[in-house]
Amino acid sequence: MSNHLTQYQFKKGQPSPHPEGRPKALKTILKTDFGITQSQCNDIILSMLAMTKAQIEQESNNPDSPMFTRIIGKAMLKSLNNSSLYALESLLNRSIGMPRQQTDLRTTTEQPIFVSLNLDVE
To answer: Is residue 76 part of a domain?
Structure first.
């Protein structure tokens, strides 16, 4: 390691800079806290995206509904009230996946391109 970074290295015996550890992944939170698998989560999101506004309001205000569906419903209603598609787009991307993006790359040079990597550190 470079000499200028040694002062920032973690020193043994010191308290941990992250005592709670790495944050849990979303699918771990859903599984442990809500008891929902990823496929169940996707099914819930897709079924709620097909509901009417009245159905979503009823589902999100029902105290007997699972917390996960209430959270998703409130996010969808907030997005609708703000005339924003961000939450809906995020839910679709999470459940179906990002749309395929196509890139057209054309070069006009006929000479080969060489890339070199210098690993010598001074």
So the answer is: yes
**2-16, pLDDT tens digit by residue?**
678 887 787 788 887
Q: Cα dihedral angle (75, 78, 84, 89), rounded to 10 degrees?
A: 10
Q: 100 in a domain, yes or no? A: no
Each residue's pLDDT tens digit, 108-122: 767 777 888 777 766
Residue 105 domain-assigned (yes or no): no
Instruction: Quote the number of domains for the chain.
Output: 1
18 within some domain: no
